[in-house]
Amino acid sequence: MHMKGTATSQQPPAQGLKARLDEAEATLRAIYRGEVDALVVHGPEGEQVYTLKGAETPYRLLLEAMNEGALTTSTDGTILYCNTRFAAMARRPMEQIVGSTCRPYFATEDYAAFQKLLKKAGAEGAKGEFVFKAVDGSSLPVEVSARGFELDGMEGFSILVSDVTELKRSSAKLQEVVGELEHFSYTITHDMRAPLRAMKGFGELLQRHYQDRVDGEGLDFIRRIIESAGRMDNLITDALNYTRVLRQQMDLKPVNAAGVLRSIVESYPQFQPPRAEVRIENDFPLVLANEAGMTQCFSNILGNAVKFVEPNKLPRVHVWAETRDHAVRFWFEDNGIGIPKRYHDLIFVMFQRLSKGYEGTGIGLALVRKTVERMKGKVGVESEVGQGSRFWIELQRCD
Ligand code: ADP
């Protein structure tokens, strides 16, 4: 085994320092050439030997070619190795980095977070985002991934530092483009409404005032124009609601779901006898939600539950809550037509409709899913054709 020792401190300070620096430089060069297998570091607790096995040379060369900064540190944070890329990021010669700590490359609060990351890294590894400070005062957004290791009785960390400037820039640009597109689609849908309402209004006037001057076929055409305009209006309303959910800030706070459900049922005759029977259980724990978002989701699910029922059958819906760990699952059971298993996921996708004989836009469940996700929840369904459906919405429980 080829060993290299770092200079001891028994010489005059300046000379000793110079000798140590020269020695360190020579050692590093030897390490990079793969000539040295072990490194002796003199510390306050005596000499420590760090072995660099010859077989690792190809890996060391690989590390040198990488676009990520790479470090090996001891458990006390001393840097034992860094690659050329790390030195370039730090804007500091390698020989000044090896033997020092990571402290200079982080702001105070970031350094505390970095140490926390190392603590939890272990053999599984851990990742975090930080601002990396070079010694010339410039800074970079970085992702640090650390992994603990144990080799021949020595413990330490392997650390990779990736510059994420480009990634951040592209994601900010993407965010901007998405924002512009959302704004565009919102404006265009909003502006489509006025001419559409005019078409519908004039159609209705035609129907009312020109009934006796138009034959049966003409009246049928007018009726279809009015109905189509109505359908388009619903489509625009739903699309607007969808873009609103994407754009709006969604603050979450404790919400009493039973209150929300009861006020929905009381506000719409289609959920009340004689048109339907909606039974809501009493005991609902508080959940973390946005009240407007919850109202939107519950009304859509209830609306579907009373809509997709065979003609002449009284829609019956049963709503209850089930507590699961840190979440509450709200169940909506109906006596409707049911949904084939293979469509259970598809119905949550925009414009996917199975039941053509029923009015609708195919946006409702996509809107529910998006809103629920923004409330950090989940949605799903259990159903079989002809057996009714059980939709569920899961939200975080307030403890
Ligand atoms: P819409 O109700 O406007 O058609 P949705 O996105 O709300 O659109 O629903 C998508 C499709 O899922 C519906 O067209 C219907 O085929 C099916 N569906 C939703 N809810 C139910 C239900 N309770 N029972 C049976 N089918 C349902």
For the biggest sheet, the summary is: 7 strands, mixed
Going by CATH, the homologous superfamily of the largest domain would be Histidine kinase-like ATPase, C-terminal domain
Total helical elements: 10
Give the domain tally.
4
CATH topology-level fold name of the largest domain: Heat Shock Protein 90
Shape: elongated
CATH architecture of the largest domain: 2-Layer Sandwich
Unreliable stretches (pLDDT < 50, length at least 5) are 1-11
Distance from first to last alpha carbon: 60 Å
Count of beta strands: 15
Strand fraction: 15-25%
Heterogens: adenosine-5'-diphosphate
Q: Give the C-level CATH assignment of the largest domain.
A: Alpha Beta
Radius of gyration: 34 Å
- N-to-C series of helices and strands: EHEEHEEHHHEEEHHEHEEHEEHEE
Helix content: 40-55%
Mean pLDDT: 87
What is the structural class? alpha+beta
